TrEMBL record:
Signal peptide: none annotated. Coiled coil: none annotated. NCBIfam families: trans_reg_YciT (NF040887). It comes from the Bacteria. Keywords: DNA-binding, Transcription, Transcription regulation. Gene3D superfamilies: 3.40.50.1360, Winged helix-like DNA-binding domain superfamily/Winged helix DNA-binding domain (1.10.10.10). This is DeoR-like helix-turn-helix domain protein. GO terms for molecular function: DNA binding; DNA-binding transcription factor activity. Residues 1-56 form the HTH deoR-type domain. It comes from Yersinia rochesterensis.
Length: 248
């Protein structure tokens, strides 16, 4: 995927639907070239073509999700990395923001990363830091390890901080996830009593999914961006959760 196609995908994922003419103006290439790019991106499963436009897909593919609000997720990841001290062992759950965090921490050899994400482990194969990939059932759609074996592995590793991705947050039900097996793994991580940190862009707040994550009382901090509605920030703060909000 070239830089222009990455720009197209980010535009589509950010705005949900973008016309060919708008993409042509943004990238300063012809509409014929844009249509060729869109055909390629659709063939690879990154978006959907409709008449005169491109539409974003809901996807578990990290590469696709990473392109949505990419610059903001990079800022969230940089801030999260600043909270990690040399010598620490930390857990990083799967997800696009966490993958960017892992890239930042990979430059520091004095850190050990524990993860269930096959994607993150592969991205860090040439990194300076130590990487521990937990075993389990390989869930192909999310490129993550899940199931009872993963939860058993978690009992035998310790870490001081855990960075967790979420799919939704609502005032009446708290943090939620789309996938039951991944939610079970997250809950096992949260139960270990480390400093649990939610790393998620503000688009996740206001959404709700069927799988409840552990109660808000086990969450120490939320790192998100300044699109977070004030009501959510107030509720989280009232529950004793530190909320770090980053601007553009």
């Amino acid at each position: 995927m070239n830089l222009r196609q990455q720009t197209i995908l980010q535009q589509v994922n950010d705005r949900k639907r973008v016309s060919v003419s708008e993409l042509s103006q943004t990238t300063q290439v012809s509409e014929v070239t844009i249509r060729q790019d869109l055909n390629l991106l659709e063939k690879r499963g990154f978006l959907k073509r409709v008449h005169g436009s491109a539409v974003a897909l809901e996807s578990d593919d990290i590469d696709v999700r990473m392109m949505r609000y990419f610059s903001m997720k990079q800022k969230l990841a940089n801030h999260a990395a600043s909270l990690v001290n040399d010598g620490e062992t930390i857990f990083i759950e799967s997800g696009s923001s966490n993958a960017l965090l892992a890239h930042q921490l990979a430059k520091r050899p004095a850190i050990t990363l524990v993860t269930v994400s096959g994607y993150i482990a592969r991205q860090l194969k040439n990194s300076a830091c130590e990487v521990i990939l937990l075993g389990g059932i390989y869930q192909k759609k999310s490129d993550s390890m899940v199931g009872p074996l993963t939860q058993l592995c978690l009992r035998h590793v310790n870490f001081s901080k855990a960075f967790i991705g979420i799919d939704g947050y609502q005032m009446d039900c708290g943090f939620t996830g789309r996938d039951m097996l991944r939610a079970d793994v997250i809950n096992s991580v949260l139960a270990k009593g480390a400093e649990n940190i939610i790393l998620a862009d503000a688009s996740k707040f206001g959404q709700v999914h069927q799988n409840l994550l552990a109660t808000d009382s086990v969450i120490s901090r939320v790192i998100t961006d300044n699109r977070l509605p004030a009501c959510y920030q107030q509720q989280l703060t009232a529950q004793g959760i530190q909320v770090d909000i980053l601007g553009e």
